[in-house]
Amino acid sequence: MLATFATFPIGKGESVSSDVARVIKIIRESGISYQLTPMATIIEGEWDDVMDVIKRCHHVLKENSDRVYTTITIDDRKGHDEMMKTKIESLKEKLGEV
Amino acid sequence: MLATFATFPIGKGESVSSDVARVIKIIRESGISYQLTPMATIIEGEWDDVMDVIKRCHHVLKENSDRVYTTITIDDRKGHDEMMKTKIESLKEKLGEV
Amino acid sequence: MLATFATFPIGKGESVSSDVARVIKIIRESGISYQLTPMATIIEGEWDDVMDVIKRCHHVLKENSDRVYTTITIDDRKGHDEMMKTKIESLKEKLGEV
Amino acid sequence: MLATFATFPIGKGESVSSDVARVIKIIRESGISYQLTPMATIIEGEWDDVMDVIKRCHHVLKENSDRVYTTITIDDRKGHDEMMKTKIESLKEKLGEV
Known about the structure:
Four copies of one chain form a homotetramer.
Chain A: E1 2-9, H1 17-30, E2 33-36, E3 41-44, H2 47-62, E4 67-77, H3 83-94
Antiparallel strand pairs in A: 1-3, 1-4, 2-3
Helix pairs in contact in A: 1-2
């Protein structure tokens, strides 16, 4: 399944990109497929693997913050692996770009 | 922590309220604190308990659908239990209603 | 249509309920149908009315903050007015509670 | 400000990529800065311009569907233009990749 998530501390100052960097390190070291975007991180895998990564990201922020806000969106389609790649390809095909 | 989530099948027809009813039954039987709203369900508990309930809700829909979409928002505040109750109360206080 | 939204400043300190109170005042004075929940505010109306309220809420927070984060979810169903009331009723009916 | 949004019909069948293609055409013709991701589209601009594009995308889907679901997340930071580019750059810098 494909999941997009964003996690950040509330109340620690306006710039949260150093926290984001800590989160990215966890994602990388997990070995899960991922894609950074300016608004959220997209990851792909089985439910438990995806949620384990998000849980660790959320809690690494909580070590240094009293309040953490996390949003997750899941698109889970039977028989569709590698949606991170195929969704954009299918779209380009429909737009006549392939 | 407080979490709000919505889960629904895509492509099974416009009315999804019978699916929602199956989801609510899982939530009730879990014993977790919850509140229904017209747009999502709010639950409160520890990370693992919250995510276990959402996982089961997501997958009960997947039994009868090839595609399931789930959104989750988490507000996790240190030292704040029973936020489901206290957040509204704190708000009413500020509005001068208490 | 039905919309749920949450808006808060990032980086102004952990407690944001006084900001939330300012937001609620705008919603009330707008006359739009609304329901407070511990995680978000639900409003119902036509697209332009809904978005006008959310825009004003977002910008009242920006007056005192350098960064504002807002999430909006819209459920727009043809021929369904008063979904704020009927969605919960339809659900209760399916759960055998009516 | 930066906004990420996803809009799709509920109940029209599992594959919604042709609808997504119609949405992308609107975004392109609007001239607004955008980036496609496998889960959502990110756009950048002033509040009214951003919301005008999202409104038109939502309603082009409603022409052929009785129910449309749209999610929007806004990150609005004073004095920060071109966040679509700078957020990823700032991140890479912190990760020691620049």
